[in-house]
Amino acid sequence: MAKNEDDFELDAIMGIEPREEEDEPLTAEQEEEALRVEALGFRRTGHFGDVLRFVRKRKSDGGRDKTRPREARINVHKLHNLAANLDKFQYHDEYEGVISLDGASAEFQFQAPGLFRPSGRLIERYEWDYETPRCEHVFDPWVIRSRSREHKAGFHLRSPRGDVCVELSEISPVAQFMLNGSRYLPADYIDYTIKVFLPVGGSFDVNAGIAQATAHSMFFELDVKYGLALALIPRKHERELGVRKAPPPGAQSITFPSTSVPREVAALFSFAAEAGDNPPFAFLSYYQVLEYYLPLTSQRDALKRIRREIRDFSFNVSNDASVLRVLNTVERAKVVSEEEALKILVRDCVRGDKLEEFFKSDNAKVHFARSGPIQGVPAINLRATNETVAVQAAKRVYALRNRIVHAKDDPRYAETPQLLPRSAEANALGEDVRLARFLALETIGDTQD
After folding, report:
1. What residues contact residue 316 under an 8 Å CB cut-off, 6+ apart?
2. pTM value?
């Protein structure tokens, strides 16, 4: 099999000498192990250097889960471990990681704020002092050597009760194969993961909960005690957050900017894009754009009502009742709640047909239904006769804002649990982020001079 330019580029990245022919054929044992991997839903596509390349076979319906890497690679020297364990693991539902079918073993990728993952170089800077636990797990860490010292990378700890172990170590062959896809690392680079081991025999749901909680607790203490800030990585969903990443095909018509955007609004939009991997932050950034325009749209609505009273054919400046009607309109405008102000903004600034069109997409129909993934917020019913779509949208956005910031002072949401970062609900906020972004864009467009 001849190599193309992409293959040579891959070899250069992975530290493999370029060559025009494939490497030595696999041994009989390796060939058998590769066939076992193929039997689990993969097709072998190449063997270059010490790397075997596979692609995930399409499902019987022709579709493919885009949240999982289609391409997978494994070093031939790790093929034995992969073939022996691949059928024992599945993808974790909430985070970039794998978990055994019985939940007794879980492995998560993580990232450090401000750094591109993986964070191997950062992990290798830390040296840990602890008592080696007596357990059945084999911990064989890399030894990091520098001019001044030599230490082992990572750690393996056991709980005081002896029922849970947590380990920071090199990524396992199974996790590397299932998660990394076509992500290439230099030959001398080590990727690290956090692993949690529990006794065999427990309930999957219970074990999965303990594993996730243990990983969170470990990262919390690494941060507060040692200044090492790490976090689990939410699973990527097929409904990506908000903005088109890949450019559309063809040349795009571009003109001198004609939209007048206040500095604060531009900064909030920029931050929302940066917070793409943190949906609650992205949502709040777009909500703050709406908040920025609330005074303007509320004032505009108040002036409209006042002018309507003054233009009434029965208005008489000498009549107390007429003047009081105007005064009452002014007073009502002063005591409008934030939720009511948001309803006014959506009603006046967002085009009704565009809003309904937004909610008619297949993803929106599922997400905004009563059975959608976000609890404690109003659903959207396009057939409702008691509330307009604009009012429903405003109520949902405001309720979701309250769940994120946990507005305990509002009795209507006092019993609703807070929406926590990195939770399953937080990771599923994509359509609500799109909604907030859409409302913000409509408002900016409507308020142009």
Report:
1. 322
2. 0.66
Residue 274's H or E segment, with its range, is helix 263-274
Tell me how long the chain is: 449
3-state secondary structure of 145: strand
Distance between CA atoms of residues 403 and 410, nearest Å: 11
pLDDT by 10s per residue, the chain, length 449:
333 434 434 444 444 444 444 567 888 999 999 999 999 989 888 888 788 889 888 765 444 555 566 788 888 889 999 999 999 999 998 888 999 999 999 999 988 876 655 567 788 888 888 888 888 888 888 888 777 778 888 899 999 988 999 999 989 999 989 987 545 555 557 789 999 999 988 889 999 989 998 998 999 898 888 888 888 887 765 444 444 456 667 776 766 677 788 888 888 888 887 776 789 999 999 999 999 988 887 777 776 776 777 777 777 777 777 777 777 766 766 667 888 889 989 998 999 999 999 999 988 999 999 999 998 899 999 999 899 999 999 999 999 999 998 755 556 556 677 888 778 888 889 999 999 999 999 999 888 87
SS3 label, residue 68: coil
Q: For 32-181, where are the E strands, in sequence order?
A: 42-48, 51-56, 71-75, 89-91, 97-100, 105-108, 110-111, 143-145, 150-152, 155-158, 165-170
Host H or E run for residue 342: helix 338-349
CA–CA dist 90, 278 (Å, integer): 24
Other C-beta atoms closer than 10 Å to the C-beta of 84 total 13
Q: Is the peptide bond before 118 cis (omega within 30 degrees of 0)?
A: yes
